[in-house]
Model the fold of this input.
Amino acid sequence: MTVPKTMGQQFGRRSWAEPWKIKMVEPIRVLTREQRETALVEAGYNTFLLRSEDVHIDLLTDSGTNALSDRQWAGIMIGDEAYAGSKNFYHLEAVIREVYGYKHIVPTHQGRGAEHLACKILIQPGQYVPGNMYFTTTRLHQELAGGIFHDVIIDEAHDPQSLDPFKGNMDLGKLNALIQRVGAENIAFVSLAGTVNMAGGQPVSMDNVKAVRALCNQHRIRLFLDATRMVENAFFIQEREPGYQETPIARILQEFCSYTDGAWMSGKKDHLVNIGGWFALNDEALYHEARNLVVIYEGLHTYGGMAGRDMEAMAIGIRESIEDDYIHARIGQVRYLGDLLDSWQIPIVKPIGGHAVFLDARRIYPQLPQEHFPAQMLAAELYLDSGVRAMERGIVSAGRDPASGENRHPELELVRLTLPRRVYTQAHMDMTAEAVKAAFDNREKARGLRMVYEPKYLRFFQARFEPIF
Done:
């Protein structure tokens, strides 16, 4: 009797499996194509406006969509819901200090609450905030505080086909040129994001953060970190940067953070929870200001908009997130999907990022001008074909220039297939890949969309569209 080879053996490697087993399941359903078409029309061709119960495989975001572990569920049962001085806050504070290395912690309801505090405290109207590519909520908070975002990411980040291993790096020449042009006193702070979302989940190297730190020290400029997906960034450093191959993820993470003055965090990503965030600082005076403001906007400084049970789940999730086996499997699943699409010659951003596979809508729909929203069109077509929900990351997400009112035109016009942590199996990835291929095979039929409703801020969440015939 011949024993069939596993898929891994067929390709000369050992198969891998997720470092967890399933204890509980949530049923999902598949609508008919006619039902999906009705749902898409009712949602104005915006995947954010679809009902989750009408979605088959939900890859809209990895924010708050993670599966909690048995340890986290156990932690939820010991939530201390005292209004002041919850023991869960002190546990969370101690874990963040230990793992990330910052001195002072202010909890918030989620990442944008921390961004809001940071921008209100650090930005004076008219100051510049250089960063390694914009992120939607971050830039808006900077602008609402009177700041001016300035992109200083390396040029390779804007090229989806570039294979640079650290496309999230800051360009020291661009950053120094801005400082020389406007003066260090007119730089509020340098905003560095680990694994740059809008560039396709691309990482920052340890050498780069060291160099940015040195330049900031030279001009007495603060350096703050968007630590939302820094555990994933640490994985790429371990894999790609000389001298770190044998260094544990936890140690890489702490070293990277040590070069920054503070960080904001959406715990709904790396921390494996459904809600929560934090703002961390080393400067005591800034901390006292943040602790005072959090009471106004979020809640008392010992809960910041989170329930005690959520703080406990986050503290446990932080420790789970830095386990090497976990993060290797996490990024391995993203790569499995990306490699499958790449093998079918479907245009994606390379190298494959840490939290998502990004489809290159510009190359998939070369016949569509950017004003016809090709990425939004592709996300709609993907849902229509299979019930897979993805997210637009292109001209709609970029929004309008606040000075001119004109659409911003980013170089990257992408659709993000974002993988929730510990939620889907390899079979779901196979189905997703097949759905993308079906949409890709019908690419010549796409005619684009027109926007028929546009909210004032962060339009990608609530805008509505209709097809162009």
About this structure: The longest strand covers residues 104-108. The mean pLDDT is 95.
